[in-house]
Amino acid sequence: MQVVSLASGSTGNACLIQTPVGALLVDAGLPQKTILARCARFGTLPEHLLGIIVTHEHGDHTTSAGALAKRYRIPIYTMAATAQKINIPPTVTVHHLDYTQPTLIAGIDIRAMAVSHDAVAPIAVQISHDQITAAIATDLGEWQPILIPFLQAAQLIVIEANHDRERLRLSSYDHSLKLRIASPTGHLDNIQTGALLAQVGQDKQPRDVWLAHLSREANSPEIAVRSIHTVLHMHDCQQYFRTITALPPHDCVAWGPAQRTMQKTLW
């Protein structure tokens, strides 16, 4: 299984999951043309896509989900409440995810967990195939202990590290937006993410981490990675994280369990 971040941030989010049996998109927050071109760079054509998983209804995750699904007859997998909030053409097949049981897509195991964000039914997802698991948890304002074992199951964790608290305070965002970002239904800051990963690392299993959805004004790749490393060092578990990579907003980064390939352009 290979995981490719196609984009990460407030201007658009999309992740490609490639397996020998087919591919999945997790979110489609970019124009169709962009998604198709970036998938093609990694050998995935529309006919290879088995489904589009939508984590929540915000536009930076759903821009072309409905249009792609309609044009190429790709089913959408999401929570029932989320399906009602996004523009899905009536000809598109929609499968509702369930918190209580996995969904199988051609042998790929999909599990959903509720997270805290200002959407109707936002989720984190686990995607597993052939004993390899990736967990994707972006857009959450706080985390609960139940999320720890959900992430511990993964060899690759894609987790939000949206902002640095001081940089958010000094940013040009208006006061109401700052409050929303920092709220329990907003976005995780670097320290919150570090604390979560420190708990995940208590199982002492090696894994890789992608830091996602970084704010361009209230964070930077260097600040995010340094802050996470500092927290992990304080908890004496940094050695269990093989790599910690801040995802760029507009370029692709790829991961595979054997080579853990990184292809990136920093901002």
Q: What is the gyration radius calculated from CA atoms?
A: 17 Å
Number of helices: 9
- The overall number of domains is 1
C-alpha geometry: globular
In the sheet with the most strands, the strands line up as: 6-5-4-3-2-1-14
CATH architecture: 4-Layer Sandwich
Structural class: alpha/beta
Describe this protein's structure:
It is a single chain. With 267 residues, the protein is of the alpha/beta class. It has a single domain, classed as 4-Layer Sandwich (Metallo-beta-lactamase, Chain A), CATH 3.60.15.10. The chain has nine helices and 14 strands. The chain has helices at residues 32-41, 59-62, 65-72, 80-83, 147-152, 165-170, 175-182, 190-200, 221-234; strands at residues 2-7, 14-19, 22-28, 49-53, 76-78, 94-96, 103-105, 108-114, 123-129, 132-137, 156-160, 207-212, 241-246, 253-255. Strands 6-5-4-3-2-1-14 form a seven-stranded mixed beta sheet. The protein has a seven-stranded mixed beta sheet with strand order 7-8-9-10-11-12-13.
How is this structure best summarized?
This protein has 267 residues and is α/β, with parallel strands linked by helices. It has helices at residues 32-41, 59-62, 65-72, 80-83, 147-152, 165-170, 175-182, 190-200, 221-234, and strands at 2-7, 14-19, 22-28, 49-53, 76-78, 94-96, 103-105, 108-114, 123-129, 132-137, 156-160, 207-212, 241-246, 253-255. The chain is built from nine helices and 14 strands.
